[in-house]
Amino acid sequence: MRRNRPIILVTGFGPFPGAPSNASSLLAEAIAEQAESQLPGFSVHAETLPTEWQAGPARLAELLDTLRPTLTVHFGVSRRARGFVVETRARNLTQYVFDACGETPQAESIADGGPNEMAVTLPTGLIVERLRKLGLPVQLSRDAGGYLCNAVLYHSLDHARRRDATGLGPRRGFIHIPDRLTPGGPRGPTRRAAASKLEWDGAVKGGLAILSACAGVGER
C-alpha cells in the first residue's frame, strides 16, 4: 500500500448460514483490484470481515485504527436486494440470529448507551445519481436489518463519532447487493436469479462509481 496517500477501505463479509459463498467479499476484492488505476490519488484496501457478532466488529476496529481510512464503504448481501441498496442509517439493535460460528448476539443493543441510530456519512444522493446515470438499479434504504450488516455499519459510524467530535471526519457507509450475484452469473433458483436486476460487470462498474462519488472524483 502506497504511503502518504489517503486510504479507502472496502469491506465484504465471509460465509454465513445460507450463504456459503458471499458475493460481497468477491465484489470488494474486484473493486479494489481496479480502483487504484481509476483513483490514482488513493490507496485502496479490501478486507473480508468474519460474519460473526464478536469477531466481525473486532476486526473492523483493528482495520480502522491501523489504516485510518478517509473513506470506508461496506458491502453486504441481501435476499431482498434487486440492485444496489444504499443504506442511510444504522440502528442500535440486533436480532437473535446465528452467525457463521453458530453464536447469537450477547445483547439486544449493539452499544449500551449509544445513539439509537446514526446517519451514514456518504453522499447517498450523489451515489444514487451516479448509478442511475450508468443505468444501474439503485434505491435508498432506511433499514439495514438486524444482522451483521447493520452491526458493522453501526460500529463503523460509532468509531468515527467517538474519534471525531466535529462530525466532519471520514466518510463511512454501507451498500447492499443481491445475494445471488457472482462473477459467473446468478446462482440458485431461476426465479430468484431472474428477479435480480444487477449483473456482475455492472456491480463492479457501480462499485467503482460509488468510490469515485464518495472520494470526490468526477465522473469517468
Compile the SSE list and pairings.
Blueprint: E1 7-13, H1 23-38, E2 43-49, H2 55-67, E3 71-78, E4 84-87, E5 89-91, E6 117-119, H3 124-133, E7 138-141, H4 148-163, E8 171-178, H5 190-195, H6 200-215
Parallel strand pairs: 1-2, 1-3, 3-8, 4-7
Antiparallel strand pairs: 4-8, 5-6
Give a quick precis of the structure.
This protein has helices at residues 23-38, 55-67, 124-133, 148-163, 190-195, 200-215; strands at residues 7-13, 43-49, 71-78, 84-87, 89-91, 117-119, 138-141, 171-178. 35% of the residues lie in helices and 20% in strands.
How would you describe what is shown here?
The protein is an alpha/beta fold. The chain has one domain (7-215): Aminopeptidase (3-Layer(aba) Sandwich), CATH 3.40.630. Helix content is 35%, strand content 20%. The chain contains 6 helices and 8 strands. The protein has helices at 23-38, 55-67, 124-133, 148-163, 190-195, 200-215, and strands spanning 7-13, 43-49, 71-78, 84-87, 89-91, 117-119, 138-141, 171-178. The strands form 2 sheets. A 6-stranded mixed sheet has the order 2-1-3-8-4-7, sandwiched between helices. It has a two-stranded antiparallel ribbon with strand order 5-6. Helix 1 crosses helix 6 (200-215). The radius of gyration is 16 Å and the shape is globular. The model is unreliable at 187-194 (pLDDT under 50).
